[in-house]
Amino acid sequence: MDGDDHLATSFRDGVNGFFPLRDMRLSDKILVAFHQACDEADYQVADQLLRTLEMVLTRQQVDPSANSRRNMDSLVEAHERLWQLRHPI
Q1: Where does the chain show beta strands of DSSP type E?
Q2: CA distances to 13, 19, 35, 85 from 46, in Å
């Protein structure tokens, strides 16, 4: 999967299939930046963005929503991606 696939997935379902950045949640913007850092092999930045994403998502848990499972799934997938990039087979 190339970097454009991650960005397309992050923006899907808005007008004409895409959300303008201003309409995205902060956690989604951070996730897009995380995937861009991974695509550019900047793993130190990706790690910091992942920590920031964790902070944002855990802070939002005070107000649980229907998206909390999807948020945690995205977080787990991001951790898995970074681990796989750092530990290639």
Answers
A1: none
A2: 25, 23, 7, 11
